[in-house]
Amino acid sequence: MISSRIQKKLRRHDGRRNREAGFTLVELLVVLVILVLLASIIGPRVIGYLGSSRAKTAHVQIESLVTAMELFHIDVGRYPTSTEGLTALVKSPGNIPGWNGPYLTKGGVPQDPWGRPYLYQAGQNGTSFEIKTLGADGKEGGTDENADVSN
Hints:
The chain is mostly helical. It has helices spanning 4-21, 25-76, and strands spanning 119-122, 129-133, 149-150. 46% of the residues lie in helices and 7% in strands.
């Protein structure tokens, strides 16, 4: 058996350990306040990077579409009409001599980073074109993340 003197020491030691084992409410609140302050400083920057990265993604996708349009133009001798649209890069729109597609490797025309289809407008006589997206707001014009992106 353990002597009563040793048992008293063990009880005293266990009591101290239990009091020192956890965090106080004040310590937890201080840590919580620090985390909230960090999130309020860092959060807007991360959201800003997300918006600018979507615009950059739109630029890269449009450049890829422009490259595919140039390949179409080399093969067919003109750009797709407005009614043929960007799907002419993936699927032959009919009896077009020289069509050697698909010109996009992913199997379909991508949507813009905001989940909408890219807008395509052919110029007169099939000599020019415009590919654009209306940005986050889906409306003409805008600034920052809402700005239109085109070739």
